[in-house]
Amino acid sequence: MADTLPHDFTPGDACLQNKIILVTGAGDGIGRAAALRFAAHGANVILLGRTVEKLEAVYDEIEAAGHPQAAIYPLHLRGAVMQDYEQLANTIEQEFGRLDGLLHNASVLGQRRTLAQTTVDSWEEVLQVNLTAPFMMTQALLPVMAAAGKASLVFTSSSVGRKGRAYWGAYSVSKFGTEAMMQILADEEFSLNGIRVNSINPGATNTVMRRLAYPGENPASNPSPEEIMPLYLYLMSDDSAGVNGRQFDAQPK
Ligand code: NAP
């Protein structure tokens, strides 16, 4: 049974003040909403993604609202190699000296078909973007997260990362792997470096990915990314200090 947001949680206006938080896939959907909300609560947000124009639009929105300065870091997770992640870590080290939060959010859906019909190309893309890229990025960023003392690392899962279902193929496998990586890192890093590691299943949320996965569904029947943000704030803020190795649902069932 997954955990949910504590009923008594109310995010303080400045609950993320002075925190440096990196969000992947920050240009659209849930990542965009998280970046904007984290900034609104005082964080300096590093916007990472593959489409520069989308990242710039989020950057401009943060600046126009008068929130703390954001930064843009374009990176295509499909082709990025360890050197790219080391460069990212060096840049964060030089600019900020530490990283307080990392939200692994970027993912691709891949083919919605049986495993029997899944192409190797699509399998590789999904596993690379959804699982191998977060592994490499995490490995490179652990030292700057350790430097923060009590950093929060949040992985994005899915209901098919907890129970396999027909036609969810490589995406489902990548999310099971994500849950495993979360549990392993939680067991290793909390006692070692004070980094707490948890996962969020956003649940059906009105984004491009959801509309792609369910073309026949009325998009308005699902909550917007903004509506599921309280759990993201909770896990990134010190309100969840000590919470480690847990699987959360953003939308209670
Ligand atoms: P989305 O609207 O498709 O947004 C995904 C974001 O990831 C986009 O900003 C996209 O960039 C970025 N991205 C994709 N491939 C990338 C790559 N190779 N390199 C860098 N960035 C890349 O999806 P979403 O619905 O917000 O999903 C966010 C997370 O929630 C994902 O992990 C997803 O699996 C999970 N999730 C979503 C739902 C749902 O109902 N929406 C349910 C369960 C889990 P571009 O904008 O440039 O394409």
How many structural domains can be distinguished in the coordinates?
1
Radius of gyration: 17 Å
Summarize the helix and strand pattern as letters.
Answer: EHEHEHEHEHEHHE
Terminal residue distance: 10 Å
Assigned CATH architecture: 3-Layer(aba) Sandwich
Count the E strands: 7
For the report, how would you describe the main beta sheet? 7 strands, parallel
**CATH class placement:** Alpha Beta
**Tally of helical segments:** 7
What value does the average pLDDT take? 98
Structural class: alpha/beta
- Spans of at least 5 consecutive residues whose pLDDT stays below 50 are none
* Multimerization state: single chain
Instruction: Quote the beta fraction.
Output: 5-15%
Fill in the CATH topology: Rossmann fold
Strand line-up across the major sheet: 3-2-1-4-5-6-7
- Can you give the helix content as a percent range? 40-55%
Task: State the CATH superfamily name.
Answer: NAD(P)-binding Rossmann-like Domain
Ligands, deduplicated? NADP nicotinamide-adenine-dinucleotide phosphate
Give an overview of the whole structure.
The protein has 7 helices and 7 strands, in the order βαβαβαβαβαβααβ. The chain has 253 residues and is an alpha/beta fold. The protein has a single domain, classed as Rossmann fold, CATH 3.40.50. The chain has a 7-stranded parallel β-sheet, sandwiched between helices. α3 packs parallel to α4 and α4 packs parallel to α5. The chain is globular. It binds NADP nicotinamide-adenine-dinucleotide phosphate. The site of NADP nicotinamide-adenine-dinucleotide phosphate has 27 residues, from α1 and α6.
